[in-house]
Design goal:
By secondary structure, the protein is an alpha/beta fold. 38% of the residues lie in helices and 19% in strands. The protein contains 17 helices and 18 strands. It is globular.
């Protein structure tokens, strides 16, 4: 069977899609005779829009490392202005996708882009098209692509990816009948069954239409990650991404080993927590270094435990690998200075820590399993061994008060010398989470569900809830999140100017905080590297 796995707009132009790179080798191994082609339509759209911008070619030359000094802050900010203009156009294309689906009149620019992407999708003459959707912003594009493909081809169209667990699949199938089915959960076994020609009733996790309405098959069983083929990025144009050197995502585990945070939805798309053997994981990194000529990797795991990072680092050092790694971590007492020194020696340059809040009351409320005292020590120790820290914050958590906000701002002031960057998100309420199931207990009034787009008279909704807070007098008020974020932004200005890296994508951030290389030079260097000039 001829299969195309596609990654649609709109994600970052720096992001190399991991999901389709994982699925392709599994499908070809599990079902001999299957030919899978990977198509990154997100990258294609970015390059198409950049090509239409007067300075787009200059931007792509800079981001590919062929012009200017990539690590120079002044050069980066100058080109960021161009990129921001193209970002606005890309966001507008997202709105045009929604208009197209609603039956309105889309602009010629969008229709031309949609036609170009559809042509790339069908160039392989596929019998099966799988569209992998990771982010909410990709859903309208994916649905528009399905409609455009159906107008010119009779191939089967299946949607999958983590985002399918974060929307109403029945509404998606009713509103976009061009989609033949949706895989909810992990996709390996479902894709293999589709390639083997099994009936739709036998496809694990498939939601599809039949004469009786919409049917939902049981999800795929939870399977071991041992023995899975390594992700295959060879079909993706790694030198075409908006990065001067390849930066690849890696995955050690699926799901979350903690699984108790009361706000989190990330486990809904996984069949339980599992991890690879350390040896297999490091071997994947070693092979990627050799095959793709890269030394920059970032973990797509929910987080990696201290014990696993010890083991991974030990094997990396034993193999003598020279890499630059970004991970997400949980700031607990087990993350000692000695341990993190080992991680840094193995190439860990940057850790994003789930700090969330500086209020111990709120940490306990969300069941984070961390303590403010430990968080402070972990960040100080990580910085002391040369690891860049990002504090990932959530403002406006349920029941948050002015006193909680003051405690958080005071805590952020304390840790500021040891933190390289911050993210500030307002609390978001999702269906099926603890806070949604017990909204009244936490003073939350649910007003409805967020609509992603409308098509054929159907509102296709996400799992994200619209809500207000219930005051002590019973009145309803807007959530505190936006107000608390604004308070942090004002406080942040008093602490100091944000670093350049805080404005960068994950891939570019990692490059900036990594050790100097012969290709990229040093961020402090004022002389142009001959390979970047």
């Amino acid at each position: 069977m001829r299969v195309v796995l596609a990654f649609p707009p709109r994600a970052s132009a720096t992001y190399v899609p991991l999901g389709i790179a994982i699925l392709a080798p599994y499908m070809e191994t599990a079902v001999p005779g299957t030919a899978v082609r990977l198509v990154d339509l997100n990258l294609a759209a970015w390059r198409w829009l950049a090509g239409a911008h007067p300075s787009g070619m200059d931007l792509m030359a800079f981001l590919s490392g062929n012009r200017g000094q990539f690590l120079n802050a002044e050069h980066t900010l100058a080109h960021k202005q161009i990129w921001d203009q193209i970002r606005k156009t890309m966001a507008h294309m997202g709105r045009q996708a929604e208009a197209f689906l609603a039956g309105g009149e889309a602009e010629p620019l969008f229709l031309n882009l949609l036609g170009a992407l559809t042509g790339q999708l069908l160039d392989f003459d596929p019998e099966l098209v799988g569209i992998s959707v990771l982010f909410p912003e990709q859903v309208p594009f994916a649905a528009a692509l399905a409609r455009a493909v159906r107008q010119v081809a009779g191939c089967r169209i299946i949607l999958g990816g983590a985002m399918m667990s974060a929307l109403d699949i029945h509404e998606l199938l009713m509103g976009v009948p061009e989609i033949d089915g949706v895989v909810e959960g992990e996709g390996e076994e479902a894709c293999a069954a589709l390639c083997a020609g099994k009936s739709l009733e036998a496809i694990p996790g498939l939601v599809f239409r039949d004469s009786g309405g919409i049917r939902t098959n049981p999800k795929s069983r939870s399977f071991s990650l041992d023995g899975l083929p390594a992700p295959d990025f060879s079909q993706l144009p790694l030198d075409a991404y908006f990065n001067p050197v390849p930066v690849l995502p890696v995955l050690f585990s699926r799901g979350c080993v903690w699984r108790r945070c009361r706000f989190c939805t990330h486990n809904f798309s996984f069949g339980g927590y599992r991890k690879k053997t350390v040896e297999a994981f490091v071997l994947e990194i070693e092979q990627a270094c050799r095959q793709y000529h890269t030394h920059h990797f970032y973990s797509a795991d929910e987080f990696i435990t201290a014990q696993d990072m010890d083991a991974i680092s030990t094997v990396i050092l034993a193999k003598g690998l020279s890499i630059n790694l970004h991970i997400l971590g949980k700031p607990v007492a087990e993350c000692t200075r000695e341990r993190m020194a080992l991680w840094a020696a193995a190439g860990c340059r940057w850790i994003g820590w789930g700090v969330e809040t500086g209020s111990q009351r709120l940490l306990d409320l969300i069941n984070k399993g961390t303590h403010v005292r430990d968080i402070r020590q972990v960040l100080e120790d990580a910085a002391s061994v040369g690891i860049a820290n990002t504090a990932l914050m959530i403002f406006g958590l349920p029941t948050s008060t002015d006193q909680d906000l003051i405690r958080t701002l005071d805590f952020l002031t304390e840790i500021y010398p040891h933190v390289h960057s911050f993210t500030a998100s307002a609390f978001v309420l999702h269906e099926r989470t603890h806070f949604a199931r017990h909204a009244d207990r936490y003073g939350l009034h649910i007003d409805g569900i967020q609509t992603l787009f409308s098509s054929r008279g159907v509102d296709v909704k996400s799992r994200r809830l619209k809500f207000r807070e219930i005051g002590s007098d019973g009145s309803l008020r807007s959530p505190r999140g936006a107000l608390e974020v604004a308070a942090w932004i004002r406080h942040r200005r008093w602490l100091g100017d944000p670093p350049l890296e805080e404005q960068l994508t994950t891939e570019h951030y990692l490059i900036h905080v990594s050790k100097p290389s012969p290709v990229l030079g040093s961020p402090q260097s004022s002389s142009a590297d001959p390979e970047l000039a």
